C-alpha cells in the first residue's frame, strides 16, 4: 500500500536533547512538508521541500532542522534550541509535478519533552 | 500574505441537523482550496477540493463546499450530520508556484445524540 509513514507514534525526550522524527513516503511524490499542530493553532508549516537536496523554511523553522537526501525521506530534527517542542508533528507529501493536487498526510508523531 | 480564517473554533449540532463550517481565505491569485477532517490523534483526511470549474464541489461522506470568489469563502456543508462526523475540520489553500499548503486554525465539531 502506498502512503506516508511517520515513526514513532509517541516519542518522549528529556529537555535539552535533540530528537529526530522520521517520515517516509512510497508515493513517489516530489514535495514533502512538516507541520506542527498545537491546540487552537491549526497546522503551522515548519519546513518544506519541493525536490531532493533542497528545502525551505516555513513559518516556524527556528529550533528545527531537516534534510532531503532521498526522494522518499524527509526527517525532522527538533533541536535543544526549540523552546517549546512538545506538540503533535505531521508530515505530508504532494506530487507537485503534473499540476496541483492535495497534500497527503501521515498519522503523526506526538513528541513530549519532559 | 496568504492566510485562511476559520472563525468558529467550536460548533455543536444535533444529530440529523444541517451543518455549515465557514472558511475565508486571503490570496491574490486563483486559489486551490481544500477541506480536511482529523480524528483525535490521527492524520488529516481529504474531504474535498476545488481547483476550477463548478463552484459547488462534492466530497466524501456526504459533504459539499461552495466556492464564492466575491466573498473569498469556501464553506463546508452537510445536510444531515451523523454522530461519526464529530472531529476537527481544517480548511486549506495551496499557493501556486511554491506549492505551500496553508491551513486555518480548525473547527472542532461536536454532535449531540
What's this entry about, in short?
The complex is a heterodimer of chains A (114) and B (113). By secondary structure, chain A is mainly β. Chain A is 0% helix and 51% strand.
Question: Could you explain the architecture of this structure?
Answer:
The complex is a heterodimer of chains A (114) and B (113). Chain A is globular, with a radius of gyration of 13 Å. Chain A contains no helices and 11 strands. Chain A has strands at residues 4-7, 10-13, 19-25, 31-38, 42-51, 54-57, 64-66, 76-78, 87-94, 104-105, 109-113. The relative contact order of chain A is 0.33. Chain A has 114 residues and is mainly β. In chain A, the strands form 2 sheets. In chain A, strands 2, 4, 5, 6, 9, 10 and 11 form a 7-stranded mixed β-sheet that branches. The mean pLDDT of chain A is 93. By secondary structure, chain B is mainly β. Helices cover 0% and strands 54% of the residues of chain B. Chain B has no helices and 12 strands. In chain B, the strands form 3 sheets. In chain B, strands 2, 5, 6, 10, 11 and 12 form a 6-stranded mixed β-sheet that branches. In chain B, strands 3-9-8-7 form a 4-stranded antiparallel β-sheet, with no helix packed on it. The model of chain B has no long low-confidence stretch (mean pLDDT 93). The chains are: A mainly beta (114), B mainly beta (113). The interface between A and B is medium-sized, with 29 and 26 residues.
